C-alpha cells in the first residue's frame, strides 16, 4: 500500500502539472511504443486479429523499460482480452502498482478506478477517493477532472468546494483535457466571464472537442434574440471565423473515434483582435491520419537485445519460462482435443459468460468495438463499445460518444 499520509485532508488545491512528475522515457522503448501505436491506429481503421500479438510484443518490452504509456496500453489490451495473460487481474494490478512505486500520477488514478470497481481488490469508495485525490494533487489531468467534477457537482450553494472543483477543471484543461476545458468554459460563460470562456473554448477545441468548436462557431455567428442567453459569448459577429470553426467541428466530430486534435488552432483561427491568416481548410492531424506514414520499425536485433536483457521472450514480450518449468508445463498440459471434440464454429456466447473455447470470436453487433477478439477458454466474454448518438445538449453535458453494452459473441475460428 503506498504512503498516502501526505494527501491533504482538507480541500485546498494547488495546480500541479503531470509532466513535472514523469520520468524521462527510454528512447529505444519509445521507438517500440510508437510502432505499437501505429499498429493500433491501423487496428481502428480495419481490425486484424493478427496485429494484436504484434502490439502486445512491443508494448510488453517497452513496459519492461519503464514506458508508462506502454504500460497503460498493455493493461487496456489485457482488459479487452486482446493480450494474453495467465492472470489478467493480478497482472493489471501489478502493472499499476509499478507506476505507483515510481511516483507516476496516472498509477494512483488507475488504482483508484480498480478499487472503486472492486477489480481484484476489496471495493472501497473512500479509499478510491484518496487515490483519486493523490493523483490530482500530483497533476493527473484525468484525476483533476474527476475530482473537480465531484466538487462542482455539490452545487454552487457550497462555494468553497465549488471553487476548488473549478480550479481542478482549469488545471486539467491547461494540460490538454478537452472535456475539462469545455466544462470550465461553460461555467465561465454562465458567469458571463466571456473573454475567459472563449479562451477555454479555444483550448478545448485545440485538444479535440467538437462541442467547443461548435460553441465558437455559434458565438461568432448571427445569434437569434431567443437564443442569445445560451449562445452569447460577447463576440462580434465574424462569418469567416464562424465558418472555420464549423469546418473544424465537423472534422473533430467525424473522427472522434480516433481522438483528433488541432494543436495549430491559433494559426488557423486566432482569437480577436488577431487578424485571420490564410487557411487552406486542412488540419495537420487529419493530413497525418490519412497519410498513415509508418514510424521506423524496430529491428529484430533491437527487439532481441531489449527482451533478453529483461528476461523476456523476444517473440512475444512475455517472461521466459524459468529453467525446468517448460518441461513441467508440457507434462502437465493435456494433449489437444480432436477438432471434433471442440466447440463448433458458429457457437454463440453472451457478454459476461466464461469463454468456452480458445479461438477468434466475433461480436454480432454491427457497430461494436471491437468486432473480433482472440480469447482463451475461461476468459470472461467482454462487453463492447457502440456509438452513442448524442444531441447537442448531451454533448454539452459531456455525455460519452460511446456506450458499453453487453452483446453476443460468435466463434469464427478455432485457436
Q: How would you summarize this macromolecular structure in one to three sentences?
A:
The chain contains 18 helices and 6 strands. By secondary structure, the protein is α+β, with helices and mostly antiparallel strands. It folds into 2 domains: 18-290, Tetratricopeptide repeat domain (Serine Threonine Protein Phosphatase 5, Tetratricopeptide repeat, Alpha Horseshoe), CATH 1.25.40; 343-415, no CATH class.
Could you characterize what this model shows?
A hairpin with an 8-residue loop joins strand 2 and strand 3. The protein starts with 26 loop residues before the first helix and ends with a strand. By secondary structure, the chain is of the alpha+beta class. The chain folds into 2 domains: 273 residues, Serine Threonine Protein Phosphatase 5, Tetratricopeptide repeat, CATH 1.25.40.10; 73 residues, no CATH class. The strands form 2 sheets. A 4-stranded antiparallel sheet has the order 1-6-2-3, with no helix packed on it. The chain has a two-stranded antiparallel sheet with strand order 4-5. It has 18 helices and 6 strands. 34% of the residues are buried. InterPro entries: DUF6396 (IPR045653), Sel1-like (IPR006597), Sel1_AlgK (IPR050767), TPR-like_helical_dom_sf (IPR011990). This is DUF6396 domain-containing protein.
Amino acid at each position: 500500500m503506498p504512503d498516502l499520509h501526505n494527501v491533504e485532508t482538507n480541500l485546498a488545491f494547488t495546480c500541479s502539472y503531470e509532466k513535472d512528475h514523469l520520468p524521462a522515457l527510454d528512447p529505444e522503448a519509445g521507438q517500440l511504443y510508437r510502432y505499437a501505436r501505429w499498429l493500433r491506429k491501423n487496428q481502428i481503421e480495419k481490425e486484424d486479429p493478427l496485429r494484436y500479438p504484434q502490439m502486445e510484443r512491443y508494448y510488453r518490452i517497452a513496459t519492461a523499460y519503464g514506458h508508462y504509456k506502454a504500460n497503460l496500453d498493455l493493461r487496456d489490451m489485457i482488459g479487452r482480452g486482446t493480450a494474453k495473460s495467465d492472470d489478467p487481474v493480478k497482472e493489471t494490478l501489478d502493472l499499476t502498482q509499478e507506476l505507483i512505486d515510481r511516483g507516476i500520477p496516472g498509477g494512483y488514478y488507475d488504482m483508484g478506478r480498480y478499487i472503486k470497481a472492486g477489480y481484484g481488490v476489496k471495493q472501497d469508495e473512500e479509499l478510491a477517493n484518496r487515490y483519486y485525490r493523490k493523483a490530482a494533487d500530483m497533476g493527473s489531468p484525468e484525476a483533476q477532472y474527476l475530482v473537480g467534477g465531484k466538487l462542482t457537482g455539490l452545487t454552487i450553494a457550497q462555494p468553497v468546494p465549488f471553487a476548488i472543483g473549478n480550479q481542478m477543471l482549469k488545471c486539467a484543461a491547461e494540460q490538454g483535457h478537452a472535456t475539462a476545458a469545455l466544462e470550465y468554459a461553460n461555467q465561465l460563460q454562465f458567469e458571463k466571464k466571456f473573454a475567459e470562456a472563449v479562451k477555454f473554448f479555444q483550448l478545448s477545441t485545440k485538444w479535440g472537442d467538437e462541442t467547443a468548436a461548435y460553441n465558437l462557431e455559434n458565438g461568432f455567428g448571427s445569434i437569434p434574440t431567443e437564443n442569445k442567453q445560451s449562445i452569447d459569448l460577447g463576440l462580434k459577429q465574424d462569418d469567416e471565423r464562424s465558418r472555420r470553426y464549423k469546418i473544424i467541428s465537423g472534422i473533430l466530430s467525424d473522427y472522434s473515434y480516433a481522438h483528433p486534435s488541432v494543436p495549430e488552432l491559433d494559426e488557423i483561427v486566432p482569437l480577436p483582435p488577431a487578424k485571420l491568416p490564410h487557411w487552406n481548410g486542412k488540419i495537420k492531424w487529419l493530413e497525418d491520419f490519412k497519410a498513415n506514414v509508418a514510424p521506423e520499425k524496430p529491428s529484430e536485433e533491437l527487439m532481441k537485445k531489449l527482451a533478453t536483457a529483461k528476461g523476456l521472450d523476444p517473440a512475444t514480450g512475455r517472461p521466459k519460462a524459468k529453467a525446468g518449468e517448460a518441461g513441467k508445463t508440457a507434462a502437465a498440459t493435456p494433449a489437444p482435443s480432436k477438432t471434433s471434440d471442440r466447440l463448433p464454429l458458429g457457437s454463440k456466447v453472451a457478454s459476461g459468460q466464461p469463454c468456452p473455447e480458445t479461438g477468434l470470436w466475433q461480436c454480432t453487433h454491427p457497430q461494436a468495438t471491437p468486432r473480433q477478439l482472440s480469447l482463451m477458454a475461461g476468459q470472461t466474454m467482454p462487453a463492447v463499445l457502440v456509438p452513442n448518438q448524442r444531441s447537442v445538449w448531451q454533448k454539452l453535458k459531456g455525455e460519452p460518444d460511446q456506450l458499453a453494452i453487453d452483446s453476443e459473441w460468435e466463434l469464427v475460428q478455432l485457436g
